[in-house]
Design goal:
With about 375 residues, this protein is an alpha/beta fold. It is built from 15 helices and 16 strands.
Length: about 375
């Protein structure tokens, strides 16, 4: 049974140590970081968001992690893999408040400016091999800061999704999307399906594509198939359902666990620590070009060295946390807590956690230790 440390979001006293940043400091002290990290480079892995998608892990929290690592003699840097092209993605990070001045450490792209700086790693029965970002592959230690939220494909997105999609590149120099995160998103050849009769020629898919590879000519869609990352933004952004990519939900969830296992296989034991932020819990991924209003009340922050335990604890806590009105949840007539993401996205998201446990990444049995105010 693994320990999962938890600080709730509610403020009981008007003192700094009772604030969310103060409580994160308390969690980091409780973790005794020097048990995990020495005088070495430590990647602080997070998600930079997108232009318009601002509900990421706030820079103030990233700074607390960086400061705690520096205090024990480590050399931290903040990183993510390319979601749009590299220089532009660094501009996104800066736009959302993540830069060397705000977080107190260098901010770098883990898989290069073009997203193809990676190393192939064995990844299980489904994926076979997958392209792990070279910087994450090579760094000796990591703190994974995950914004817990919903996800159109994963249903629930936390530390496993952060590792699977965020520790893996979009493409590989030789085998393209089939060796990157696109191999998780799709089945078979992953060909886009476009229904001309449903299409209203609104150009939302053109605007939302991070690679600018969708266009229309004479009322017909043109798509640069070989360049496509299979990220699925076009499908999600289409208001009429005219665009689709094939996906087997169970295969996708299991492949998330496989990719996570591949990423973590590049680290020695006890060199990765996980912090899940159950705040601004929106229904969509932070890679979308806008942020929805939260669907679940802020619950708090969790910390553990067991990725399976922290994911199970996060799900359990959200299952008993109040649902927010005037949100996508209320649009779907979800009023009471309990499997909110399952009701919203109709995805068997627990499979990713169960498969991660089966692969030996941790245990769903945990001891939740709430820090006293």
């Amino acid at each position: 049974m693994s320990n999962v440390y938890f600080s709730k979001a509610r403020v009981d006293k008007w003192k700094y140590e009772h604030s969310m940043p103060g409580k994160l400091e308390g969690l980091l002290k409780k973790a005794e970081l020097n048990r995990y990290f020495a005088n070495e480079y430590v990647a602080v892995k997070t998600h930079f968001g997108s232009f318009g998608a601002h509900r990421i892990v706030r820079p103030v929290f990233i700074r607390k992690v960086v400061d705690a690592l520096i205090a024990i003699g480590s050399k931290p840097f903040v990183t993510d893999t390319v979601r749009i092209m590299g220089v532009e993605y660094l501009e996104v990070a800066n736009h959302n408040g993540i830069n060397n001045l705000s977080v107190g450490a260098p901010v770098v792209i883990a898989d290069g400016l073009y997203g193809n700086d990676n190393i192939m790693v064995k990844a299980g029965d489904i994926l076979k091999e997958i392209a792990v970002a070279s910087l994450i592959h090579d760094v000796p230690a990591m703190v994974v800061c995950s914004h817990v939220k919903g996800h159109i494909n994963a249903g629930y997105a936390g530390a496993i999704k952060n590792m699977a999609m965020g520790g893996v590149s979009s493409s590989h120099r030789e085998c393209g999307w089939k060796c990157g995160r696109g191999s998780m998103h799709t089945i078979g050849e992953g060909r886009m399906k476009w229904d001309e009769e449903l299409c209203e020629l609104c150009d939302q898919c053109v605007e939302i594509c991070p690679l600018d590879i969708i266009s229309f000519s004479g009322g017909k869609m043109e798509w640069e198939e070989e360049k496509c990352w299979r990220c699925g933004r076009c499908e999600r952004g289409c208001p009429t359902g005219s665009i689709g990519f094939p996906q087997d939900d169970e295969r996708f969830m299991r492949s998330l666990a496989e990719a996570t296992s591949a990423v973590l296989s590049t680290f020695k034991e006890h060199k990765v620590l996980y912090i899940n932020f159950l705040t601004e819990v929106q229904p969509e991924c932070d890679c979308m070009p806008a942020a929805e209003v939260p669907v679940i009340q802020d619950a708090g922050i969790l910390l553990s060295d067991d990725i399976v335990a922290i994911e199970q604890a996060s799900i359990d806590i959200l299952d008993r946390t109040a649902v927010l009105g005037d949100s996508l949840a209320s649009d779907e007539d979800i009023r009471e807590p309990g499997d909110t993401f399952g009701k919203l996205h109709k995805k068997p998201y627990n499979i990713q956690v169960e498969e991660a446990e089966r692969l030996g990444l941790g245990s769903r049995d945990y001891d939740l230790i709430e820090l006293e105010d």
